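== Item description ==
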Amino acid sequence: MKSGEILIRKAKKGDEGDVGRLLMQFWKDAEKRNPILKLKKNIGLRDYVNSAKKRLLQKKKNNFLFVAEIHEKIVGYLEFKVNNNIKYCQTKKYGYLETTATDKKFRKKGIASALINEAFKFLKKKGIFHVRALVSNKNNIARKAWAKVGFYDDSTLIQKNLK
């Protein structure tokens, strides 16, 4: 699907280098915001590429990975799944958006919104009408992007530093 000049498609074998690069950006940004996270010193791009490769090759029927391209260059990705795993309740199936990353050079161009909206269409076709995501309160850019596509605060993950 196209959104302006942005092409959104399911990720495929061969995308792992670009997705790995985006994963590395994602985790480095997350480490800056979250005092619980400390990236291991010996982890490099090759490790993120290998992680992306595993994600692309997994055969779980409820996990999905989309990428965004501009001029045949992958500039964003979204990983999501279909869930209904609340242990003690009978729940409706819902979409869970796990990881969204946009290349730093291409942020604020509607890429995350295009990816998320494509996931919404995909989930609706599967009869799924509820979607959740977790975002850090410190990540104002992501919070604005999520709000732009209709997400609202439903729960709050709280934490305390014991220093």
User: Anything to note?
Assistant: The helical segments are 16-33, 45-57, 111-125, 140-148. The mean pLDDT is 86. Residues 2-148 form a domain with the Aminopeptidase fold (CATH 3.40.630.30). The chain is about 35% helix and 25% strand.
